[in-house]
Amino acid sequence: MSREIALLTNPHAGRGRGRQVVSQVLPGLRSAGHVVRNLQGTDPDEAMRLAQQCVADGVDTLVVVGGDGMVHLAIQALAHSSTRLAVIPVGTGNDVARYLGVSRTDPLMAAAVVAAGRERTIDLARAGHRYFVTVLAAGFDAIVNERANRMTWPRGQMRYNLATLAELRVFRPISYVMDIDGTEERFEAMLVAIGNGPSFGGGLRITEGALLDDGLLDVVVIGPMRKRQLVATYPTLFKGTHVQRPEYRHYAGKRITIAASGITAYADGERIAPLPLTVEVQPTALRVLVP
């Protein structure tokens, strides 16, 4: 394999900060002796082709300059390959960077991780034909994402706030059928989350305790509760203390099939597919660079 690395940038990440960050980190990477491809996808399809070409060419490390959505795109090419992933985060949530211990505020510190070259191997999860790093959401949070994606105004976080308020007015507990490694469960719940890692949505620790390298997926079920309780539970997700609520249940497994009517699942913040869906752990599927 060559020692060549590639920067793959989402130019729109961080409201256009992607280009600015590349201009900051590129000179330092080259002066450190790296041969660097500077790549920029004009749309997701082109970005995917560029990532796949890097793998085909044996590029040593693909450095994603963007958020969790850009990482999600990149791992579809990198999974089970010898090309390593590094992250210079300029997105909104940046949960993958949080997992890896990469600075989310200083691009030069994040780029220093590339220069140091310290490697770790982590698991991925696969939902259908799509890989993900973080958490698959299949409940109230997924419904909010669906509504927000249909909205054209406002932009940014406020759109999700308004979508949350709109869904709260009409939301009812969802009936699920779930199979975990051959054991079936039937229940009603506000949400189900399947985590390869512990957090999503910018640090919401929904699958608190999930490990990236244990060969297991963590499944969290939040049972029926009043809407007021659901709203009150939200702040506890940032600390992971929702695990103390009586409505909380936790499972672990390698292969989870989940079914519910009218739910479209999201993972790494990206739209995946309507349920039913089978999610399987992919042990040691991704090589990553960490501080």
Strand order of the largest sheet: 6-5-16-13-8-9
- State the helicity in percent bands: 25-40%
Give the C-alpha Rg: 19 Å
Low-pLDDT runs of 5+ residues are: none
CATH topology description of the largest domain = Tumour Suppressor Smad4
Q: Architecture of the largest domain in CATH?
A: Sandwich
Count of the separate structural domains: 2
Report the average pLDDT across residues: 92
| Number of E-type strands | 16
Q: What's the CATH first level of the largest domain?
A: Mainly Beta
Summarize the biggest pleated sheet.
6 strands, antiparallel
**Euclidean distance between termini CA atoms:** 22 Å
Strand content: 25-35%
- Give the helix/strand class: alpha+beta
What order do the SSEs take from the amino end to the carboxyl end, as H and E? EHEHEHEHHEEEHHEEEEHEEEEE
Total count of helical runs of at least 4 residues: 8
In summary, what is this structure?
The chain is an alpha+beta fold and 291 residues long. 31% of the residues lie in helices and 33% in strands. It contains 8 helices and 16 strands.
Distinctive features:
single chain; 291 residues; alpha+beta; Rossmann fold; Tumour Suppressor Smad4; 2 domains; 6-stranded antiparallel sheet; 31% helix
